[in-house]
Design a protein that fits this description.
Order of helices and strands: HHHEHEHEHEHEHHHEEHEEEEHEEHEHHH
Low-confidence stretches: 1-9, 15-24, 131-138
Number of domains: 2
């Protein structure tokens, strides 16, 4: 492999910023590629596979290594012909094809027989058109079959994999595809056919072109074609492990979404207080909380729910202390303990937003702050258990 190809494997250097964004190109780091095959090897040996397909191969990070070399036929494909040209110079044993992995998908288009035992190993594109990050340059970068069209190229890619009926899939994708119920429901055609076998989390900051200030959890996910598939209940109780050796389950927390309205509720206008739309913890870090102006993203607060919004407002001040792998979760809450601290959170928000609330006495603020600090200290200790 020549030096140019080695260097370019980390970042899609031939693409502009806009092209990287719209193609969802985050090229796979070598250590993540190695970990993917180490994880996959626990479930299937390379000599049990007839064909390996990487439908989004880029420069070929997932086309190297001993595991790959032991497979009879290896196919690398990509919509980006410049990336294919670079990969061809590095991998003489790979059959390369220029192909849109989201249009007119079939085994025959890749030269794969219907009875071939197929493995898809992939780092599919990631471009959420509804995300506010980089929204000034985002657009749909390729044609997509109507039944695969979603708001995110990665979700569409998994639905496309389902059409190829692989026996195993080793894929990198955001944890949010599984833990956010809206995403999971979009993936039901895929999930009903594929059982999650392993899910190892790493930080998106491993990718060269990802943000270095707001990492989010990405999975090395291994799926096997099984009739039982994967249910959301499976995900809710799944123990997710991280590449650093930590773990968590969704079921170990209660979440704020059970106690308040997270999204705009126009039928409940004329409320005294407004709050900015809530999504997950990472979004909370970037967004506002209490607001004064009536905007499209305004949530109208019911008086009996105000204390819960105050909790989210103060939680935001502690959110940076949480591990990156919790970034796509809804805001967690210990509701039993919260009930005894309602007044404290309301006092803290009032002190923080004196332009919206009547400012409390400083002594009351200090007492409330001590109680909140105790709450979040105990909560953070539980997170690390």
């Amino acid at each position: 492999m020549d030096k140019i190809a080695k260097d370019q494997r980390v970042s899609a250097k031939h693409l502009s910023f806009a092209a990287k964004t719209n193609l969802g190109s985050f090229y796979t780091p070598k250590r993540i590629a190695q970990k993917l095959y180490e994880t996959l090897a626990k479930f299937v040996a390379p000599d049990q596979i007839d064909v390996l397909l990487e439908p989004n191969c880029g420069y070929g990070a997932l086309l190297e290594g001993e595991y790959v070399k032991r497979i009879k036929k290896v196919i690398g494909a990509d919509i980006d012909e410049s990336a294919i040209a670079i990969a061809k110079s590095a991998f003489s044993f790979v059959c390369f094809k220029s192909a849109n992995a989201l249009k007119n998908i079939s085994r025959s288009n890749y030269g794969i027989n219907e009875n071939d035992r197929l493995l898809i190993a992939a780092n599919p594109p990631y471009n959420d058109l509804t995300s506010q990050i980089k929204n000034g340059v985002k657009k749909l970068a390729c044609e997509i079959d109507r039944d695969l069209l979603t708001r995110d190229l990665g979700l569409s890619s998994l639905l496309g994999f389902n059409r190829l009926r692989p026996d195993f899939i080793a894929v990198l994708h955001p944890l949010s595809y599984l833990i956010k119920k809206t995403n999971f429901n979009l993936l039901k055609p895929f999930m009903k056919n594929y059982a999650l076998k392993e899910a190892l989390i790493f930080n998106s900051q491993e990718f060269c072109d990802a943000s270095k200030t707001s990492g989010f959890p990405v999975l090395i996910a291994i799926y096997a074609k099984e009739q039982k598939g994967t249910s959301y209940e499976d995900i809710y109780h799944w123990r997710f492990n991280t590449i650093e050796g930590e773990s968590f389950t969704m079921a170990q927390f209660d979440y704020i979404g059970a106690y308040l309205d997270k999204y705009p509720n126009k039928k409940k206008k004329n409320s005294k207080y407004l709050f900015y739309t809530m999504r997950d913890i990472n979004a909370l870090k970037r967004s506002r909380t209490f607001i004064k102006e009536e905007i499209a993203n305004a949530v109208h607060i019911r008086e009996e729910k105000l204390d819960y919004y105050c909790y989210v407002d103060i939680f935001k001040d502690y959110a940076d202390r949480l591990p990156y792998y919790m970034g796509n979760l809804d805001v967690p809450i210990d509701n039993k303990r919260f009930e005894s601290l309602r007044d404290s959170f309301r006092i803290l928000s009032a002190y923080k937003h004196s332009d919206i609330f009547a400012k409390p006495k400083f002594d009351d603020f200090q007492k409330a702050q001590t109680r909140a600090q105790d709450y979040f200290r105990d909560f953070l200790e539980k997170v690390r258990l």
